[in-house]
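Hey, I'm writing a tutorial for new members on how sequence and structure tokens pair up, and I'd like a real worked example in the thread rather than a made-up one. If someone can provide the structure for the chain below, I'll link this post from the tutorial.
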Amino acid sequence: MTNHVSLNKKSNNLHRSMAWGKLVIAILLCEATGIVSGFIGNASNNSWFSSLKKPLWNPPSSLFAPVWTSLYFLMGISLWLIWKSTSDSKQPAMRLFALQLFFNFWWSILFFRFQSPVFAFVEILFLWLAILGTIFLFSRISKLAAWLLVPYISWVTFASILNFNIWILNR
């Protein structure tokens, strides 16, 4: 009996450490997406962006990095909640999450590297729809996972409006 209890305890510890490992991987995946996209897009110290006309309500550039870092962190936790679930619906939900992360990755590159507010705006609309779909699918598995994406879709909504206005002001 003692060996059986000991094996169960070891199994539970392994399961817990695997869950924490998934959390770390999920957060790092999301954060790395933003870091690599920003690096390729050359978003910081971009003279082209500095020269653009922007609406008066454009936030200071110093705000974007901490906001995105926080959003990627929340996205990682949200992904982890779905990944560790036993739901039969988790694979389609995680695929849609991957799609929205793919769109997220490309926005900075389209906007900053290719200097195309119009293509970036079209792309951010696909991103917004993918986030909305992800929230919907995540909500079927974990309400918390879905709610953790609400600040993200809110910020992307704001970013979409800002992107559109920058495009219009600089046509």
